[in-house]
Amino acid sequence: MISQFFVLFVVFVYGSLLGSFLNVCIYRIPKGSSIVFPPSSCPVCKTKISWWQNIPIFSYLFLLGKCASCGSRISFRYPLIEGLSGILSVFLWERIIGNSSQIPDFHIFLLFFLEVVFVFLLIVITMIDFDYQIIPDELVYFGVAAGVIYSFFIHDLPFSLLAGLGASVFFYAVRVLGEFVFLKEAMGMGDVKFAAFLGVFLGIKKVILAVILSFPIGVALALGLMALSLKSRKDYIPFGPAMAFAAFLSAYWGNQILHWYLHFAVRLLAGVFVHSFADLSQASVWFAHFAARA
Ligand SMILES: [Zn+2]
């Protein structure tokens, strides 16, 4: 029990250290600067940040959210992303390695590693798209490459490539149609390429669900951002964060969502057309069975 807790603690620490690296990526990739050199410094006074000021979460707490040299405020986003990365690492570890009945082998560790890459890329893309309304190509290409390795082990690779292509073509069509209807860019090329990365990782069934979910999530996100006055009505609200969140939900709860939805749909239809409760439960069982196999 204690050893299990210790393992999760170590996973959390490594996850948050990687989260600290994600912060560097979010800050530097859109500026076109190197993500490995030079070491981090305060953006205001340029003083180099020493190792003790760079401990995930803790440094922010004991520096009280201020630079040790010039006292300028450090964004709350840094510890937030470090904490989130730590928690998501523990989540994936529990899901993939902790829940496995087998003794973890190379295959399972590779799976864990690639899913960490997937989720961390979603975080970096979300934040960069939120700040700059761009999704850097190199992140998408890296994601597609990781997704190809991943689906080689998990799904049928040709079907995953088809899912990536299909999702891209769909968003490209939305882009063309959006420009035609609104006479301005409604969907960026970054989103179109991002969809390919999601498709390759998620496979056909889950990417379709992610695409469907991304639209209501996008609306909710836009309303939420305006309510919190983080964006105004005049701002361009990026779609990447909604796609990323929809992909995350679909990847880890997609089967439950589909299952729930089919039950709901069947009950609704059966309620309208069939009055016998026996038929209704029979039909939902049959549909659930079908959904589980699909
Ligand atoms: Zn400073």
Q: How much β-strand is present in the residues?
A: under 5%
Stretches where pLDDT is under 50 for at least 5 consecutive residues are none
Q: Return the structural class.
A: mainly alpha
Number of beta-strand segments: 0
Mean pLDDT: 90
Ions, cofactors and other ligands present here are: zinc ion
> Which sequence of SSEs, written as H and E, runs from N to C?
HHHHHHHHH
Helix content: over 70%
Head-to-tail CA distance between termini: 38 Å
What is the number of helices? 9
Cα-atom Rg, whole angstroms?
22 Å
What kind of assembly state do the chains in view correspond to? single chain
Gross morphology: globular
| Major sheet characteristics | none
3D structure, described in words:
It is built from nine helices and no strands. With 294 residues, the chain is mostly helical. It has a domain at 1-99. The mean pLDDT is 90. Zinc ion binds at residues 42, 44-45, 47, 67, 69-70, 72. Residues 42, 44-45, 47, 67, 69-70, 72 line the site of zinc ion (ZN).
